[in-house]
Amino acid sequence: MSLWVINADWQRACSNYLGEINSKYPKSKHLHSM
Predict the structure, then answer these.
(1) What is the pLDDT along the chain (34 residues), one digit of tens a residue?
(2) What CA–CA distance (Å, rounded) separates 28 from 15?
(3) Taxonomically, which superkingdom (predicted)?
(4) pTM for this model (two decimals)
(5) DSSP characters over the chain
(6) Among 13, 19, 15, which Cα is nearest to 28's?
């Protein structure tokens, strides 16, 4: 049960982290790789 909480927390943190990178660096590497 705790794995679900950890997974949701990790996904939320990852989304926030990617959001900050996209706002600071619009031309990020993961956009170029697509």
Answers:
(1) 577 677 888 889 989 998 988 888 776 565 555 4
(2) 15
(3) Eukaryota
(4) 0.47
(5) -HHHHHHHHHHHHHHHHHHHHHHH-SS-HHHHT-
(6) 19
* Residue 11, phi-psi category: left (phi > 0), alpha (psi -120 to 50), beta (remainder): alpha
CB burial string 1-34: b at 16+ within 10 A, e below: eeeeeeeeeeeeeeeeeeeeeeeeeeeeeeeeee
- Check if the beta carbon of residue 26 is closer than 8 Å to that of residue 19: no
